[in-house]
Amino acid sequence: MLVVMQTHATPDEIDHVVDAIRAMNLTPHPMPGATRTAIGITGNIGAVDSRTLEVLPGVSELIRVTKPFKLASREMHEADTLVAIPMGQAFQLDAEASHVRLESLTYEKNVTIGPGTCTMIAGPCSVENEAMILRTAEFMMENGVRLMRAGAFKPRTSPYSFQGTGLEGLKILARARQKTGIGIVTELLDTDNAEAVEDATDIIQIGTRNMQNFALLKRVGMMKKPVLLKRGMSATLEDWLMAAEYIMAGGNYNVILCERGIRSFSDHSRNTLDLSVIPPAKKLSHLPVMVDPSHGVGKREFVPQMALAALAAGADGLLLEVHPDPDHAASDGAQSLSFDGFKKLLESLRKLAEPLGKRLN
Ligand code: PEP
Ligand code: MN
Known about the structure:
The protein starts with a strand and ends with a strand. Helix 3 (130-142) packs parallel to helix 4 (166-180), helix 6 (214-221) crosses helix 7 (237-249) and helix 10 packs parallel to helix 11 (339-353). The protein has 361 residues and is an alpha/beta fold. The strands form four sheets. An eight-stranded parallel β-barrel has the order 9-10-11-12-13-14-15-16, surrounded by six helices. A four-stranded antiparallel beta sheet has the order 2-3-1-4, covered by helices on one side. The protein has a two-stranded antiparallel ribbon with strand order 5-8. The chain has eleven helices and 17 strands. The protein has two domains: 2-63, 2-Layer Sandwich (Alpha-Beta Plaits), CATH 3.30.70; 83-360, TIM Barrel (Alpha-Beta Barrel), CATH 3.20.20.70. The radius of gyration is 21 Å and the shape is elongated.
């Protein structure tokens, strides 16, 4: 159920409706919009008795949300969601500053993920050591990429494969962030490490294998940091949006969806990158949709074509694996771009973004 407030509803009237929803043992989710506030209601098993709320001052109408995912749906929130990543904390800027100055370069303080932009998140599959992370962070910042990905905890198919550098890896990421001002995106594998990962990152990544780890989804739902939710490798669009709903139901509305390829009969690529999911995902949900072509195809030579195709298909951003020495990477080297390869791709993406009305971010 969605309570739509009148355009001129006062803050007191909104608070009153929120309290009334709580009094019914339900959970209110106020969502301020451009012209009016809407208040989503979750927690009901059957239908909500709408008469109690309809009569309250400032209420315009009550709308039943027909989809099983509520907070993630466009019915609940019509406009595209823009997730803002507050950058520059590392510099202890005053709250008023809108730009970060770093040696000769000036950056906007916040990175926004959503309409009008294509946000780049790039970096190695895993944190291997401090030198390669620092080198990558500096390279990214020099090339206008403000968010670096790198896993400290790695979910590997084989228990004998490199499992990541764990807590030490998180410390390395935190130092790279402190030194260069780059934003960090890293995967949270289990609830045990939730606090440590939350402290070290700007965006928490939930991997494909954990898309339906409901305990983990509930845990990040209680956090403040944005969550990049990868699509499960066998998840339907509805499964994926229901996973987003778990996070949002806990009060964390900053969810970014990320398509990374699904399992199919095809064996010419590591996975089948399902770009056809972007338009329906954006039709059904207001959340930003990013694409990870690296895990999608699994081979470096095919990554650029699919990155460009993802942008053309409406992706709000790209997650790419880039390594200073891909042939000697500890994980996913075959699908990682070299610095040169990534620079070339960035040039092509910038050219394509313009006619699409997007800005590379
Ligand atoms: C990753 O991003 O390195 C990763 C493990 O991704 P996925 O969960 O999509 O396999
Ligand atoms: Mn990887």
